[in-house]
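Quick one:
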Amino acid sequence: MNAAQLPAQPAVYLVVAAFLLAAGIYGLIRRRTLIGMLISGELVFSAAALNFMTVNRFLAPDPATGQIVVLFIMGLAAAEVAIALSIIIAVYRNYRSIHAPELTELKG
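Output:
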């Protein structure tokens, strides 16, 4: 797919980003497992990255700015996944479950 086939209006990208954000927030609220919450958080990161790239493509004078921010978001997401998975593994070893409602001893 070349650049001529991409939509020329930012509304298409912003609607997709809004859908990703809504699906991520819904998943964070409704999911009961820690893995589901982690995946939903990644959807929120993807929505933010898509918003940055949309603004970069249609409004920013320098195309590198949005790409640098998206690379930073991707690095942050990778670090978040690595740390979250290690925490999830530790929780599973101690409690034999990754269902969030069953982890009542973690309340402060």
